[in-house]
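#onboarding

Welcome to the new folks! Below is a worked example of what a typical request in this channel looks like: someone posts a single protein sequence, and someone else replies with the predicted structure as tokens. Don't worry about understanding the tokens yet, we'll cover that in week two.

Example request:
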Amino acid sequence: MASKAFFDPMVLFRVAPLVSSTFALRFSVDQYSFLNVLLAQEHREDAKHIIPSYFRIFFRNGIWHIGVLYGVSFGSGIANFFSKPNAAWRWYAAGTALTLAHMAFAPKIMWSIKDLYDDEPKGQGDKHLKKWLDIHVIRSVLADFPAWVCFGIACLKSFQPL
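Example response:
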């Protein structure tokens, strides 16, 4: 049996949503940073035609990261909410709700993804990517960052003595 001096499973339980939301927020920032390069003036004309194929590969790989990270954030957030750790449970609830709010953007953003996949009309990849990035930034600012803040506050409060 592992000693709590070296490993306390309750600490892992409490910080899991913060860790996963940190990775998700970092992934969100990376997506913007790496994809926005294709919209830079010096790349834009050449990138119009490669953006759809690049995005298809990028999205197929990234969707698994998103699914796992937001799944862990949501699952561990809801588990912490139901365990009602002192005053932190409200913050876990808020972080969990904001994690779910990330998915509320799916109907709006899926049209941009479809346009990027199909690239209709052809050669408009830059316009489709710009539209996707605009929604992505709004979603990150309104859902992802506040969820991370809430989970951070929840962790701090959950480790305070009763």
